Amino acid sequence: MYMQAVHLPGLSAGEQPRYRFPDKGPAPEDLLFTSASYPRPEFERTAKLQTRYIVRVCATALTRGELTWIEVLQIGNFETHGGPIPGHDLVGIIDDVQYEPSVVPKFSKGDLVWGLISFDRNGAAAEYVMALEDELALAPFPPPDHAAENWNNTLATIPLSGLTAIQALFGHGGLKLSQLQSYNKSSQSRTVLILGAAGSVGVLTVQLAKLAGLNVVAACGERLNGFVKQNLEPDHILEHETILRTGLSVEMKPLSIPDVDLVIDCVGGEILKSTLLQQGCIRAGAKIVSIASPLTAYGDETVSLIEDTCRQRKTQFEFFIVEPNSVELDILGELLHNGKLRGYVEAVYTLQEARGAMKRIEEKTTSGKGKVVLEVYHT
């Protein structure tokens, strides 16, 4: 059986791989919109034996750089009929359930679900996708003030970015999830600096940090300062350009911003490098968590300088990659339904337009005020 999908070219038997991580990745122009193999749960490579679902895709979102991820470019993801399918955010309807006789499935045919598909398997830029039970949760209903007809597209912006934000703050950042359930004013004595606050992960990190009662310092590009100030309302706003020009400490002190207890980096590059090398406004014992860049991206000499600075300041750096988590999806869903969390849609494309959508993302011609969504099936 076949379905319509967006995918990279397949690989014939004996053919050498076209792509290689990290120096020879695909481009948006390599994406094809053709027939691809219908999901076959019995052949899917998974680490755990658990209930598997065939989901009819309603919407997915695309992410900058995802075509070049090492998990995506594994040779096993390239079949004769087609290569990897992008779009690991998922909103869709359960179409079929495959489970062991001794297991009671969590979801039923017809359920509207959302989730994050593991990066080493095909994504949701297709009519159908296979998902594991721990990758999914029941999709939340929209809040009263949200247009129901656009809700699936809004939901598609959340799983990857929202789970990254919640794991950065409450997993790797050391905060407690209970702070989201009961606003704790005593938490305001703790200050979090969020680099890349206007990006798809940053906007959700700012919102979650505020819900947890933290003193939030949001750093973003000058062009998006107004968007962050108006929509996210952090306690303080810094601009990346000024941080690079004068340094983080020089930027913070005139604003009477307390020293930082936690840094969440959503941008990497020179902004993270500058922050790691100039930690005068970061408290001893603070954690610096990056979702954008490991230290190895900076070369041996710079890494040595950063490690020396962290030792002197007694700070800890950590880079991580988000993992699917159905419990955290339920938490995000409740916040969305109650109107406490908001997703932002930059633009909506059809499945046939995915190549142009990905090109728009990679060429950074988006406004930077939300994610680019593919609407596959309108309910």
Automatic annotation (TrEMBL):
Pfam family, one: ADH_zinc_N_2
SMART domains according to UniProt: PKS_ER
Gene3D superfamilies: Medium-chain alcohol dehydrogenases, catalytic domain (3.90.180.10), NAD(P)-binding Rossmann-like Domain (3.40.50.720)
InterPro entries from the UniProt entry: Chloroplast_QOR, ER, GroES-like_sf, NAD(P)-bd_dom_sf
Superkingdom: Eukaryota
Domain Enoyl reductase (ER): 31-374
MF annotations from Gene Ontology: oxidoreductase activity
Signal peptide residue numbers: none
Protein name according to UniProt: Enoyl reductase (ER) domain-containing protein
